[in-house]
Design goal:
The structure holds 2 protein chains of 2 kinds.
Chain A (H helix, E strand, L loop, with lengths): L8 E4 L5 E6 L11 E5 L6 E4 L13 E6 L2 E6 L8 E9 L4 E4 L3 E5 L1
Parallel strand pairs in A: 1-9
Antiparallel strand pairs in A: 2-6, 3-4, 3-7, 5-6, 7-8, 7-9
Chain B lengths: L2 E4 L3 E3 L5 E8 L7 E7 L6 E6 L6 E3 L7 E6 L4 E6 L8 E8 L13 E5 L2
Parallel strand pairs in B: 2-10
Antiparallel strand pairs in B: 1-3, 3-8, 4-5, 4-9, 5-6, 7-8, 9-10
The chains are: A mainly beta, B mainly beta.
Chain lengths: 110, 119
């Protein structure tokens, strides 16, 4: 049972925008940088966003991250069929002394 | 470029042990800590813990029992995850992943090792 509960699924048509929420608390998101990972079907998770809003080299700017207080959000604009994947937020939790992943959100392109 | 090459899939009986390896290349091994993450079939990601590649000191995630051991062989830039007294519930894909100590993101991931525990 993760302390970061994401919506199980979000969907939108190609070219549209989706956002994925990741609510947390002061022991995790509120006091630590957050990361987002993308896991395409049958593949290895890949770092998508780190330090709340930074993109590793090669990640298109269609992907964006933000954080406000104890909640974080991943945005995907210009949705493509290749974006269909599971997305996980993650951060350190000071109370649990554990790195925690969110429950994951499946993005479907209609 | 950074690469993490994990050992191949394993099929084990309950009660047996398994040792998964993760060989790093493309960087100085001690630059990054090595984390372990598991993913049960159809489930999400679960952080298992990490090992400091400079000191060899392991840190285990909450709920991880003494059946799990992280170790290193720095001479061959390899990290290991050993699981003893395997249970069917240990069936999962196990990933190694690098991180800068103190950061909150896992930069590079191995390809994963499927461990299946079945009688």
């Amino acid at each position: 049972q993760s302390v970061l509960t994401q919506p199980p699924s979000v969907s939108a048509a190609p070219g549209q925008k989706v956002t994925i929420s990741c609510p947390g608390s002061s022991s995790n998101i509120g006091n630590h940088y957050i990361a987002w990972y993308q896991q395409l079907p049958g593949t290895v998770p890949k770092l998508l966003i780190y330090d709340n809003n930074k993109r590793p080299s090669g990640i298109p700017d269609r992907f964006s991250g933000s954080k406000s207080g104890t909640s974080a959000t991943l945005g995907i604009t210009g949705l493509q069929t290749g974006d269909e994947a599971d997305y996980y937020c993650a951060t350190w939790d000071s109370s649990l002394n554990t790195y925690v992943f969110g429950t994951g959100t499946k993005v479907t392109v209609l | 470029q950074v690469q993490l090459l994990q050992s191949g899939s394993e099929l084990k009986k309950p009660g047996a042990s398994v040792k998964v390896s993760c060989k790093a290349s493309g960087y100085t091994f001690t630059t990054y800590a090595m984390n372990w993450v598991r993913q049960a079939p159809g489930q999400g990601l679960e952080w298992m813990g990490w090992i400091n590649t400079n000191t060899g000191n392991p840190t285990y995630g909450q709920g991880l029992t003494g059946r799990f051991v992280f170790s290193l062989d720095t001479s061959v830039s390899t990290a290991y995850l050993q699981i003893s007294s395997l249970e069917p519930e240990d069936t999962a894909v196990y990933y190694c992943a690098t991180a800068i100590v103190g950061s909150t993101h896992l930069d590079y991931w191995g390809q994963g090792t499927l461990v299946t525990v079945s009688s």
